[in-house]
UniProtKB/TrEMBL annotation:
The keyword Cell membrane applies. InterPro entries: Bact_solute-bd_prot1 (IPR050490), SBP (IPR006059). The keyword Cell membrane applies. SUPFAM superfamilies: Periplasmic binding protein-like II. It holds the Pfam family SBP_bac_1. This is Extracellular solute-binding protein. It comes from the Bacteria. It comes from Kribbella turkmenica. Keywords: Cell membrane, Lipoprotein, Membrane, Palmitate, Signal.
Length: 425
């Protein structure tokens, strides 16, 4: 899911004002003769960097004023954005959350392939571009990428007799889990609360079964007859069931929040943690310094020896541009500035964030972030964020598998129906 929590996203309706605001000019206010570019997000990771970037840009562009507004959380942000969309006055630059494609096809967001061109977009990771693309049009660009992996405590693995290089496949992890439980520790801490968080773990399993990162992109849109009852999805659910029944996770994953899972890890109650690439930021703030120095990370296990270690990756944060603002050109100019080589890479490094471009990825300074980003450069990234209408609802039936209940074919059928119901079809 998106960094910061997706839990409330499924319950937030699009708003009846979408169609009404698609075709008319909006915003485009001026201040003292200057074009005003409003930028809305919840991206507090760069809260210290944005003022410096804005000051530098405005010094070189005396005719443009940037008004940056950072909301506390996605749950606080989304209602404000939806109200702006319904009122036909959308910020010139905004975080689209999971609504990038919906706002794009509704005429709210500009097609950045047309506005910025392929030369600008080709530097972004393919997975970051794909998540925002539909029918040849791209409605946002990635700001912060994210990958997932198994963070681990080398001391606990050693106590359990598990080698750091012995976990290549899910079968290897299941075997290691038995040894870890034998020393009184949980093997892997995982948060499935809210249930949409479980999709971060599960959706890459679909790619592992299909060995095709575009398979879920079509499933997400229910495109060309794609269905959750597809044998590949059922096989992925069966693999998920095998992992759960293998005792890999702590009891009660569907009751474990996104804050509680890392706590299990850094208090050494769990030997490993499945989580995203923002984890180093949190551990630096919350974990004992000695723990921060010793923990490591490994790739998500593969489905079989020699197979690709597909890992959840998309841009957990991105930027869209209002299609109808009179100040769209000024917004695009600021966007180009944000991604310029002299600004973007230092911004990501200073905030310990994972960049969404290949060129900035080669300039990462934090070792563990550099390691996790290298998996994307190796081509291991695959989708894990549900952008399609109603797609987040698939997480609710899936919770049965994490709770040790239900059978794959039946759960797949329930997932399909849940998505259709949420979609309104």
């Amino acid at each position: 899911v998106l960094k910061g929590a997706l839990g409330g996203a499924a319950a937030l309706g699009l708003g009846s004002g979408l169609a009404a605001c698609g075709g008319s000019d909006s915003g485009g206010s001026t201040s003292g003769g200057k074009a005003v570019v409003r930028m809305w997000s919840w991206y507090n990771d760069q809260e210290a960097q944005f003022p410096k970037l804005i000051e530098k840009f405005q010094a070189a562009h005396s005719n443009i004023t940037i008004e940056n507004r950072i909301f506390g959380t996605p749950d606080q942000y989304l209602p404000a954005l939806q109200a702006a969309v319904a009122g036909g006055d959308v910020p010139e630059i905004f975080a689209p959350h999971t609504r990038a494609l919906t706002y794009g096809t509704g005429g709210v967001s500009a097609d950045l392939k047309q506005e910025l061109g392929d030369d600008f977009l080709k530097d972004f990771f393919d997975s970051a571009n794909q998540e925002y693309t539909l029918d040849g049009k791209q409605y946002a660009v990635g700001w912060m990428a994210q990958t997932f992996g198994l963070f681990y405590n080398p001391d606990l693995l050693q106590r359990a007799g598990v080698g750091e290089d012995q976990i290549e496949t899910w079968d290897d992890l299941i075997a290691a889990a038995a040894k870890i439980r034998a020393i009184g520790k949980h093997p892997v801490a995982l948060s499935c609360n809210p249930t949409t968080s479980s999709l971060d773990f599960f959706l890459p399993l679909i790619t592992q079964v299909a060995d095709d990162p575009t398979f879920y992109l079509e499933l997400d849109q229910l495109k060309d007859g794609a269905t959750y009852e597809d044998p590949k999805v059922v096989a992925a659910i069966a693999l998920q069931q095998k992992i759960v029944n293998g005792g890999v996770f702590q009891p009660g994953t569907t009751g474990t929040s996104g804050d509680q899972a890392p706590q299990l890890f850094y208090t050494e109650k769990a030997a490993m943690l499945f989580n995203g690439s923002w984890t180093p930021q949190g551990l630096t703030q919350d974990a004992p310094p000695a723990f921060v120095k010793k923990y490591k990370v490994m790739k998500t296990p593969a489905i079989a020896p020699g197979k690709r270690h597909w890992t959840a990756n998309q841009a957990g944060a991105g930027w869209a541009v209002s299609a109808n603002s009179k100040n769209k050109d000024a917004a695009l100019e600021f966007l180009r500035f944000l991604y310029s080589a002299d600004e973007y890479s230092p911004t990501m490094n200073e905030s310990n964030s994972m960049p969404a471009t290949k060129s900035a990825a080669t300039r990462i300074e934090l070792p563990i972030m550099k390691q996790m980003t290298s998996w994307l450069l190796d081509g291991d990234g695959c989708p894990h964020i549900p952008f399609g209408p109603g797609s987040v609802a698939a997480g609710d039936p899936l919770a049965k598998i994490f709770d040790g209940k239900g059978e794959p074919a039946a759960v797949a059928k329930e997932m399909q129906q849940a998505v259709l119901n949420a979609k309104g079809g």
